[in-house]
Amino acid sequence: MVSTQPAGFGPVFDATRQHFLRWTPPLWGPLGAATTEVSAPRVGERVLDVCCGAGSSALTAAVRVGPTGAVDGVDLSTELLDHARTVAARQGLANARFIEADITEYSAERPYDVVQSVFGVFFLQPDMNGAATRLLDLLRPGGRFAATVWAEGSIDEVGAAIFDAVRELRPNLPTSSPVTESAKSLDTEEKLHAWLTQLGLEDVEVTEIPLRVPLPTEEAWSFVLGTGLHALIISLDEDERERVRTRYLEFLVERGITEVRADALVGLGLRP
Ligand SMILES: C[S@@+](CC[C@H](N)C(=O)[O-])C[C@H]1O[C@@H](n2cnc3c(N)ncnc32)[C@H](O)[C@@H]1O
Questions:
Q1: Using a 6 Å cutoff on CB, does residue 125 contact ligand 1?
Q2: For position 18, what pLDDT does the model report?
Q3: Closest Cα partner for 87 from 10, 42, 20, 150?
Q4: Is there an atom of ligand 1 within 6 Å of 228 CB?
Q5: What is the CA(72)–ligand 1 centre distance, in A?
Q6: Are 16 and 83 in contact (CB under 8 A)?
Q7: Residues 267, 193: contact at Cβ < 8 Å?
Q8: How far is the CA of 201 from the centre of ligand 1 (A)?
Q9: Which of 36, 61, 117, 245 has the most crowded Cβ, counting Cβ within 10 A?
Q10: Distance 97 CA to ligand 1 centre (A)
Q11: How far apart are CA 216 and CA 233, in angstroms?
């Protein structure tokens, strides 16, 4: 049976590096920038970017807070953090630090003005709510918490195609995972608003970010390799991967899938 988390999220996202970067301009980059528009870090503020990956939202925040501010990006993936550090150095962003750590065990000496997470909170298992409560403790009173999640239906069609392809080899592949269930529990404006309110945040608002990403056949396998979908294939050997790749591409053609629906929701609230 293929576990959806065979090696932990750090190694899974390490393995995505080359392809994750391929999908940064059309996917991770715009959604990270859109999140930072909503969390709106101001000059001089301190920002914690949770599950920062290759740094799309953290780097944008670092530009906004300027040299008198600071951004701490935290992630488990050595490879994605390495890329984020390289870009920060190239852009002269000495105010951005990238820290390899499990965010559920992270603590800080001083509170942050903003805690933001783009496609991160639903990875915080087995207790997403407990982990989010700990993150809010890292905020100063009046500080902003922003969480970006997939809107209902996003990634579903491509996800189903790769899932169905892997299932042909691994009939016992679980139909869901704690990450998927947590993501589904936040995938509408109402659900995300209710979750942030339940966490104790005030003045909660949810912003919809519509996004469609073209998926030409020659790039479609890269999408699996460059996203969390990589978890489904990471434990397959080369021969199995090739069989899955072929079936996945056939499913995309049969189902007429030529783009990825990548609509996101950004929830924002203030710590009382
Ligand atoms: C879908 S990626 C999003 C990355 C980035 N925020 C972006 O939007 O480009 C999810 C990230 O969460 C990280 N992650 C998952 N669980 C984590 C944990 N417990 N602590 C720190 N990072 C974690 C993974 O390593 C991965 O880089």
A1: no
A2: 95
A3: 20
A4: yes
A5: 14
A6: no
A7: yes
A8: 23
A9: 61
A10: 16
A11: 20
Closest ligand 1 atom to 104 CA: 19
Query: Hey, what amino acid is at 17?
Result: R
Q: Is the Cβ–Cβ distance between 186 and 266 less than 8 Å?
A: no
From CA 15, how far away is CA 231, in angstroms rounded? 9
Output the pTM of the full model. Answer: 0.96
Helix axis angle for 217-225 and 9-22, nearest 10°, is 150
- The best mutation among 4, 5, 9, 134 to test binding of ligand 1, ranked by most ligand atoms within 8 Å of the C-beta, falls on 9
Domain residue spans of the chain: 9-270
Tell which residue, 35, 107, 51, has the closest CA to residue 84.
Answer: 51
Q: What is the pLDDT of residues 204-256, one digit of tens each?
A: 999 999 999 999 999 999 999 999 999 999 999 999 999 999 999 999 999 99
> 9-270 has which CATH code?
3.40.50.150
Residue 206 bridge partners (DSSP): 267
